[in-house]
Amino acid sequence: MSQPNYLYKYRPFGEFLLTELTNQEVYFCNPCQFNDPLDCKPLLSVDVEMNVLERLVYHLLKKKRPDTNEWAVSRMNEYRYRASEFGEYNDGKEGERYYKRSLLNVVEEKLLEAMGDIGVLSLSKRWDSILMWSHYANSHKGVCLEFAFEDNRYEQLKPVDYNSDRGISVKDVGRWLLLEDVDAKRRVRDRFVFSKSRDWKYEAEWRAIQSPYGRSPSPFRLRSILFGARCDASIVTTIVKLFSGSEIDLQFYEIYLDNKSARLIKSSVDTAEVEAFGVRKSELFRLEELGANFEPVFEDFDDATEAPASDLPKGV
What we know:
Blueprint: E1 6-11, H1 15-23, E2 25-28, E3 43-45, H2 50-64, H3 70-83, H4 94-114, E4 119-124, H5 130-136, E5 143-148, E6 157-159, E7 167-169, H6 170-179, H7 182-193, E8 205-210, E9 214-217, E10 221-227, H8 233-242, E11 251-258, E12 263-268, H9 271-277, H10 283-305
Parallel strand pairs: 3-7, 10-11
Antiparallel strand pairs: 1-5, 2-9, 4-8, 5-10, 6-8, 11-12
């Protein structure tokens, strides 16, 4: 897949956005906060025999208490005992299926523990997605940040794969967690983070990852800020004035809906006008001052209405 020139981040307006813009930071989100409950949810692909799966689980349990075998053995016996409610743990029927599911639950739990502090930065190749403006930018009332892909400071940046099998190899999980195999870790991580359902393909998503999750200095150069079609003028004023006189050279755009094509288009913001007229006094005080300025004129007009017709200008 070819690299895009720009990547985009849809954001609602608020304190977090202003903090990130002021400090030039981005937020790497923990997967448990994702809106898709299946995103970064392990789908284990069982590519080992039952006896290998048992040994894998035993060593994963033993790793938690390496000073003794007894705890790991007791847990394995407990899984077998619970399976007896449905048959035998090795009967090839319901009992064995229950036992196998118990073992896979352990593998999944240990995998989630290993990936627990990972943070994901989600970006898109698109700025003109009506759905993403609706979902991630407060129903078109927020903004979209445009980052330059070129000269980014991040290595683990990849497009999301919407077409591959999302299954994570149990064998790879074992090789990573028990043998610290870096290639197995990469394969597990790629399936865990960079694979999503085809239903999300319209997002054209790219992701960066880091540990731990949370705020981090932005690895990208911010190039422009796009204001949603329903973005309030006060938000435009706030952000334009935030960057006024800064060392960051930005472009600002307003988004409009083209009624003919039902597509989003963008138009440059007149920043000079925003900076000159963006902040105003309270309407109450402005009206009072306006009335005070016009009062002498009204008095003169009253006097003029009492003047003889001959004193009025011609044509009146």
